[in-house]
Automatic annotation (TrEMBL):
Positions of the Tetrapyrrole methylase domain: 1-208
Enzyme class, first EC level, given as a word: transferase
Protein name: Precorrin-4 C(11)-methyltransferase
CDD domains for the chain: Precorrin-4_C11-MT
Gene that specifies this protein: cobM
Amino acid sequence: MVHFVGAGPGAPDLITLRGAERLKKADVVIYAGSLVNPVLLGLCSAQCRIFNSAEMTLEQVLSTMEQAEREQKQTVRLHTGDPCLYGAIQEQMDALKKRGIPYTLTPGVSSFCGAAAAVEGEYTLPGISQTVIITRMAGRTPVPERENIASLAEHGATMVIFLSASLLDGLQEALLQGAYTQQTPAALVYKATWPEEKVVRCPLGELAQAGRDHGISKTALVLVGDFLSGDYTRSRLYAPDFSTEFRRASE
Ligand code: SAH
């Protein structure tokens, strides 16, 4: 059996209870060495064999899984954050299915949640934005043309941009072609939830310069939108005149 597990954004106590349990019972662990906090590997047993997928191809990952399966071992494939975002898990699941190897999925806390905590923010503020756009700049992995940043930015919604900290000049320019202005608040969140976490807030018009000034060019998320401005209308759900299934409105 292969268990895909989300490791969380960095802090080792942000893995789920289930994820930690899977790691403790694993005979083989293949972890995404570029981003998973290695402290988590301390949960593994002394006999556990540990592989760093940053140094492996998909074929090598699969043959390691196949070998473990032949020996009836439990394998954990440990991905950063939640595996469903930029985790390249679909190709692994499909290959396992083809080989008749069973697998499970354990979600994790994505870095976009860690980043919201770092800025003490709420992405979905009433009257400001009720939508979160998660995307990335095209890099060596292409992005479909209809999802280019400028067109997504037309909504003026909350945006969380992954994998783009080394492309801040182009990102800033594309975002400004949409509904945002030079003054729209933005933040760069480096290594959210790690001890070395850094939050840099700036107007969107200064994003690329802020990245240069603070030496941030990887392992960071870019947050953009008026949710960072401190302006909003209070929630309807908790308003005294709002009835719900659980609470009757007061007069
Ligand atoms: N599956 C992961 C994302 C993997 S893609 C998740 O759910 O978070 C790798 C990118 O995620 C990095 O380039 C960076 O943009 C972002 N990232 C991952 N961990 C991060 C962290 N702790 N703080 C800020 N950004 C992070």
